[in-house]
Amino acid sequence: MNPLDFTENDASGLQPYEQFERLEYEALAEKKRKALSQCQFEGLAKKARHEDDSQAIFDEIMETMNHRRRRKSRKRKKSGRRKGLKNKLSPEVTRKLGEANLHYAHGRYEEAILVLKEVVRLAPNLPDAYHTFGLVYNAFGDKKRALNFYMLAAHLTPKDSSLWKLLVTWSIEQGNTGQARYCLSKAITADPEDISLRFHRASLYVELGEYQKAAESYEQISQLFPENVEAPKTGAKLYKKCGQVERSVSILEDYIKDHPTKADLSIVDMLAAVCMENNVHDRALQHIEHAQLLYCSGKDLPLHLTIKAGICHIHLGNIEKAEVVTSLL
Question: pTM, whole model, 2 decimals?
């Protein structure tokens, strides 16, 4: 199979990113089968460890497609191999790549394409060629084809978060939400500290109607960035939408536990509301009184929490306490 075939939909209509998803899934499944077989053979019962290995997987895919090239050892596939590969480019490939870039710089796009095809034939794992292909087709105004070539380049340089982020932006511009989601996941792997990427992916899940995945994404954001208030609140709403009330309560309670001296009272208000809606008034009251003790010592509770406390007392049959609370309004 020619690597350039990945820039087109395949015979079954799969888009390039879907082809990559399928091949990555198949490669991971094969690795798991081999690992399981090895464990059974050795009589081991170790827990499998999952690691991001997208570069190694993609290299294996590219080697499979390039039938004429000699299969390289796995040892050369470890980190740092891209630098080593570039240093070992043949003079012919280096010359042709420079020639293609020169054609592009002078607007000779058709000539650039012909030379780049030859570069891909000689060095199918070289990301520079696909990146230049992307530049050429973008100059042609064919942004969809350009994106597909950048996708190839990105898979060969999976830690280049800027390229994945560009693919996210272009995918959204083209209205391809599935592809945007795929590229967002890759961008997050490349730059796990960029919280905006995680929020973007979570909101995309909501747009696609995948509320469970969206809720889990917001919960993950809450765990990784505990100072963020919006993540647990949005996650709680989505868990509730999925009918998972206990998980909705849990994500809010976890936020409060992580902030024993100072918490956002809007979290307490939402937590109390969820508990009250599910007739767990004693639990709601417990959270309100806990908030008053820790966060509002010497001060009055906000009005909305005071009203909720009074309603809870009524439902629990504490009429006198309810009257005391409501008298403060």
Answer: 0.74
